[in-house]
Amino acid sequence: MAERGSYAKGVARREEILTAALDVFSREGYRGTSLREVAKQVGVSLPGLMHYFESKEHLLTAILQKRDEVDGESLPSTGDFLDTLIRIMRHNRDVPGLVQLFITLAAAAEDPAHPAHPFFVDRYAAVLPTLAGSIRDRQDAGTARADLDPEHIARVLVALADGIQIQWALDRSVDMAGDIERLWALFEV
């Protein structure tokens, strides 16, 4: 019986750590955040914090997973994932540190042995068909060109979203959501 209570407390502590880390990383970014700062905010030592994660890279990956979970709750889908993508890109202006973390881990996750590799593979496996479905729905509604290949356009839009975040990280005057909207306008009827 005590093990179940300990397990529940451990899960709750891990969630507390992730919530605090999400907050700190959103403000301070990948390079500006010390894991000691996150530990201090939660009231544990650095070894205590790392007790809940296999490595720093596992913690950073968990932060991105938590970010997606929180964004999914605070930016609910309207059913049209293209609109959701644009809302997410607008929201990303307010969390530059998480954009920086995403960019950094995306590059590192190219290595299949990196803990973030499955996160990104799974993310694209979910996002691309969902976005393609939204494009297909717009084609069926007569608002998008019928000659579009929804899977190809979804891949292009996701590539734009990821790439525009890199440009925005270098130049905050870049309008991430606006650029996606302008590209999409080329595909409307």
Automatic annotation (TrEMBL):
<protein>
    <submittedName>
        <fullName>TetR family transcriptional regulator</fullName>
    </submittedName>
</protein>
<dbReference type="Pfam" id="PF00440">
    <property type="entry name" value="TetR_N"/>
</dbReference>
<dbReference type="InterPro" id="IPR009057">
    <property type="entry name" value="Homeodomain-like_sf"/>
</dbReference>
<keyword id="KW-0238">DNA-binding</keyword>
<dbReference type="InterPro" id="IPR001647">
    <property type="entry name" value="HTH_TetR"/>
</dbReference>
<dbReference type="Pfam" id="PF13977">
    <property type="entry name" value="TetR_C_6"/>
</dbReference>
<dbReference type="InterPro" id="IPR036271">
    <property type="entry name" value="Tet_transcr_reg_TetR-rel_C_sf"/>
</dbReference>
<feature type="domain" description="HTH tetR-type">
    <location>
        <begin position="11"/>
        <end position="71"/>
    </location>
</feature>
<keyword id="KW-0805">Transcription regulation</keyword>
<dbReference type="InterPro" id="IPR039538">
    <property type="entry name" value="BetI_C"/>
</dbReference>
<keyword id="KW-0678">Repressor</keyword>
<dbReference type="GO" id="GO:0000976">
    <property type="term" value="F:transcription cis-regulatory region binding"/>
</dbReference>
<keyword id="KW-0804">Transcription</keyword>
<dbReference type="InterPro" id="IPR050109">
    <property type="entry name" value="HTH-type_TetR-like_transc_reg"/>
</dbReference>
<dbReference type="GO" id="GO:0003700">
    <property type="term" value="F:DNA-binding transcription factor activity"/>
</dbReference>
<feature type="DNA-binding region" description="H-T-H motif">
    <location>
        <begin position="34"/>
        <end position="53"/>
    </location>
</feature>
